[in-house]
Amino acid sequence: MKNRIFTKVDRNVRDRLAPLPQTNPGEPNNQVARQLRLRDLAFESSPLARIVVNHNGILSLASQKAKTQLGLISSDIGRALQELEIYYRPAELRPLIEQAYVERRTVTLNGVERRFPDGEVQYLDVQVVPIVEDNNTQLGAAVTYFDVTHVVRLQEELQRVSQELETSSEELQSTNEE
User: Is residue 126 packed enough to be buried (19+ CB in 10 Å), middle (13-18) or exposed (0-12)?
Assistant: First the structure.
C-alpha cells in the first residue's frame, strides 16, 4: 500500500461516461450518453445567463449566454467560484447562495447595476435557486442573471413622461385660471 499512487476520481457522471465506447444506437450506454449530451446542449443553448455551482463552491456549468454576458471561458468550469469575478460582481454571490441554502428557497436580488468601462449601464435581476436531491442533500445552486435593462429604461421613460404630463397639466390649469 505504501507505494500506490491514488488520483482523485471525478464524481461527475457526464465526465465518467464520456470515455465509454460508442455502441449501437439501441444499446443502453449510447442512449444514456445521448441523453446527457442532449441535456448539456439544452442547458448551453438557454437564452438565459445561468451558472451552476456545486456544494463545494465549484463552477460546474455555464450557459453560452452566461459565458458571453459575464465574461466566462470554458476553462473557468471546474474552478472555485470565489476565484472568478462573477463571485463578486455584478452582485456578491456568497450571501445569496448561503441564504438560498439555509432557507432552502429561491433568493432574488433585483435591479443590480452593472457598469461597463464605456459608461454603459446594465441592470440585472439575480436569482439563486438551491439544487436539492430527493433526500434533502444539497447538491449546489443555480444562479440565473436576467437582463432587465430594457424594463428599467422603460420605467425611467414612463417617469419622465409622467413628470412632463404633470408639468403640462399644471401649466394648462394656470393658463385657464388667468
Answer: buried
In this structure, which amino acid lies at residue 44? E
DSSP conformational letter for 26 = T
Q: What 3-state class would DSSP assign to 148?
A: coil
Contact criterion met (CB below 8 Å) for 52 and 128: no
What is the DSSP secondary-structure string of 95-157? HHHHHHHHHTS-EEEEEEEEE-TTS-EEEEEEEEEEEE-TTS-EEEEEEEEEE-HHHHHHHHH
Query: Taking the mean position of all CA atoms in its chain, how far away is CA 155?
Result: 24
What does the DSSP assignment read for 41-62?
A: HHHHT-SSEEEEEETTSBEEEE
pLDDT digits (tens, 9 = 90+) for 114-146: 888 898 999 999 999 999 988 888 999 999 999
Q: Each residue of 26-55: b (16+ CB within 10 Å) or e? A: eeeeeeebeeeeeeeeebeeeeebbbbbbe
Q: What is the pTM of this model?
A: 0.72
Say how far apart CA 96 and CA 99 lie, in whole Å. 5
3-state helix, strand, coil in the chain (%, to 5): 45, 25, 30
Angle (nearest 5°) at CA 115 between 152 and 124:
40
Rounded to whole angstroms, the Cα distance separating 59 from 87 reads: 10
In single-letter form, the type of residue at position 169 comes to S
Report which secondary-structure segment, H or E, holds 24.
none
